[in-house]
Amino acid sequence: MVKTIGNPLSWAADAAFGTGRTVGAVAGSLGSELTAPPATNKITTTDIRNALRKGVNDFTTFRSDVMFLVAIYPIIGICLAVMAFDMARLPLLFPLAAGFALLGPIAAVGLYEMSRQREAGLQVGWGAALSALRAHIIGPVTVLGLVLLGIFIAWMFAASLIYNMTLGPQPPVSVGKFIFDVATTSAGWMMVILGMGVGFVFACLVLVISMVSFPMLIERRAGLPVAVMTSVQVARDNPRTTAIWGLIVALAMALGSIPLFLGLIVVLPVLGHATWHLYRAAVPPPE
Fold first, then answer.
1. What is the C-alpha to C-alpha distance for residues 120 and 265, in angstroms, rounded to an integer?
2. Which of 117-126, 158-167, 250-259 has the lowest mean pLDDT?
3. pTM for this entry
4. Measured between alpha carbons, how far is 99 from 77 in angstroms, rounded to an integer?
5. Backbone CA torsion sign across 219, 222, 223, 228
6. Which of 110, 128, 138, 159 is the right S-S partner for 95, CB 3.0 to 4.6 Å?
7. Per-residue pLDDT band at 159 (split at 50, 70, 90)
């Protein structure tokens, strides 16, 4: 059949139908081909060590690609840190840096896909990360990402409230005075203790719901509810290993944030790739 150039009306119709099909596919992807979480394995500290070793190996293999992919992450961190040096926002600088760990699973979506393709024996380049944005994936990943973003915003609101209840509500007069008040006053210590306690709760929530859910959504048409239930199941069945993994992630993210977030260029991809391999140890591949 001979193809013709067409006209603006036909172009608009094709675009509308194409958009409708895409939106339908994305909406349909929120459901699941599974009716219940799959069987999961017990994981140990040996699995964590193996996951980290494989994560480092993936990073060294894809180093130039991965560093390109995650460069935007520390850039955003630097911009936010500069904003926080406004005296009114200074008390939120540390919660801001700590809160980046809550958004790490979103930034690592492309890394999971790169590790998955390498595991499958495919030729992997930076374009592999973009292939994670397929129609059946982007829907549930976006919704789960919005959930984590909502948790991050709630954490920042809680941190602001804690400051207002302790050292606030007036902004610090200087950086030096703020540090002095935090280190030497009972209100400052109360702010630190409350902040660490509340932050721990937020971090545990994110860890439990995202530990294996993002990699699972990348690998199979699990649907968002089943993926989250599987992640909760893995955390429930492996509380000690999950706690150790969470501690490793928190310490690594903290160390990566110290030099103006630039260390995240290395920390984030290693943890992202390692998360995929820990998922593989916890959830057997589909038959």
1. 25
2. 117-126
3. 0.77
4. 11
5. negative
6. 159
7. very high
